[in-house]
Structure to design on (436 residues):
């Protein structure tokens, strides 16, 4: 297992950053509209598409990406409206491909039906939203921070260069919404959960997600599993952020988000932790007394059911008066909706409720007595300047950072006596990764 981990480290280092389009790259947004219950493009819609993609047609861009989001009105059956929204987005994609747009450059998303108060709003909801982001320079556009050669003068440069690319989702704050991460994380955002400044209520909310489940994920993100001087065992770490029009959002007071962490086996004592990076760059995890974690079956939510679940939650939650009862009931229904299918597959998950976003950790304090914990001091083979030392435990998913001690000794505090571990050294000065 550890050999595979070292291989993963080296592969990730040599492959470099996964390129994506920065938020500052040129962007054009537009929408094309459809007739009632129709998914065919009108002549006017095709003209609008040609105008939007004129620069691309003239080959004035070097690279580009297109995101299409299908929507529908809320008249009739929810599932049918979701399917119609998907057909509309696919119709736009088919037309663009016929005009020369690369099929691999187009991403299709479906939000399904949208609420409306009158016929005019219904008409405006029968649309496909288009986001075209392109590159006009001769070099690739990297994610938010451009890749930089590791420097002996800046310890953070290396971690920035291998930082995990965030997954991006767009949600409507008026609906209960379920999001699914690439590594299996599920997120349930309740309707009206976010505090929105006046004048911005109708604007969509952007959710970004980074998932950290393996040792490679954690080491490359400079993450450890400690709370003060106490050792933790993690069930997974997440970084979740919410923004609207580029401004950070927070959950309303009394509101929680429901998270599902996939796992092969369930351990007792898991609870919710949140963290912030300190001056040394490491995160100190603090227990969230308003959060909770329960073991259960993985939420097996198929994409065609997402719209139905949104509608189900929105209707039933409005019938309940107490906010806490709303949360508990919604969580239980969400679990029960998929419990049979999940049990058949043998998948499990930790289900967490938390009132805080950004850095989130599903953890348990290591249940080892103080008498069975030891401090470890070793003479390092590398200097402490621009170098990170991590100890990875074999019997539990725990990562401990080493510290410089008296007379240049490498110091690890409070480790379980007798457990096997692997020492990982990242030497920034030499721009290399070394295992000892």
């Amino acid at each position: 297992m550890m050999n595979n981990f070292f291989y993963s480290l080296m592969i990730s280092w040599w492959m470099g950053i996964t390129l994506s389009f920065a938020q500052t790259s040129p962007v054009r947004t537009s929408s094309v509209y459809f007739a009632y219950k129709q998914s065919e493009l009108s002549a006017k819609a095709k003209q609008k598409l040609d105008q939007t993609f004129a620069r691309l047609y003239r080959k004035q861009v070097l690279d580009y990406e297109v995101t299409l989001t299908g929507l529908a009105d809320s008249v009739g059956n929810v599932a049918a409206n979701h399917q119609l929204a998907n057909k509309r987005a696919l119709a736009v994609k088919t037309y663009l491909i016929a005009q020369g747009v690369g099929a691999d450059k187009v991403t299709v998303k479906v939000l399904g039906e949208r609420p409306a108060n009158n016929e005019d709003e219904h008409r405006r909801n029968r649309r496909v939203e288009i986001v075209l982001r392109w590159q006009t320079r001769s070099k690739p556009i990297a994610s938010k921070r451009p890749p930089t050669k590791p420097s002996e003068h800046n310890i953070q440069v290396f971690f920035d260069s291998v930082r995990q690319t965030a997954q991006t989702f767009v949600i409507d704050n008026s609906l209960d919404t379920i999001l699914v991460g690439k590594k299996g994380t599920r997120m349930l955002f309740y309707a009206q959960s976010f505090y929105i400044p006046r004048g911005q209520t109708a604007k969509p909310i952007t959710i970004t997600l980074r998932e950290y489940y393996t040792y490679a994920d954690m080491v490359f993100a400079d993450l450890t599993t400690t709370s003060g001087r106490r050792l933790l065992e993690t069930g997974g770490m997440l970084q979740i952020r919410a923004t609207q029009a580029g401004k950070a959002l927070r959950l309303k007071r009394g509101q929680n988000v429901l998270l599902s962490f996939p796992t092969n086996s369930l351990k007792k004592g898991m609870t919710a932790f949140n963290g912030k990076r300190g001056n040394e760059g490491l995160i100190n995890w603090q227990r969230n007394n308003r959060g909770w974690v329960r073991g259960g079956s993985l939420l097996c939510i198929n994409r065609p059911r997402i719209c139905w679940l949104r509608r189900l939650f929105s209707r039933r939650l409005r019938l309940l008066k107490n906010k806490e009862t709303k949360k508990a009931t919604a969580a239980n229904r969400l679990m029960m909706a998929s419990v049979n299918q999940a049990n058949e597959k043998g998948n499990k998950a930790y289900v967490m409720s938390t009132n805080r976003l950004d850095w989130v950790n599903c953890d348990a304090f290591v249940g080892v007595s103080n008498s069975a914990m030891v401090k470890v001091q070793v003479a390092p083979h590398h200097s402490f300047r621009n170098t990170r030392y991590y100890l990875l435990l074999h019997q539990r998913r725990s990562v401990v950072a080493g510290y410089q001690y008296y007379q240049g000794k490498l110091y690890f505090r409070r480790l379980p006596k007798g457990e096997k571990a692997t020492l990982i050294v990242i030497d920034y000065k030499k721009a290399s990764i070394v295992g000892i």
User: Anything to note?
Assistant: The chain is about 25% helix and 35% strand. The domain at 26-140 is CATH 3.30.1330.60 (60s Ribosomal Protein L30; Chain: A;). Residues 178 and 306 are 7 Å apart (CA to CA).
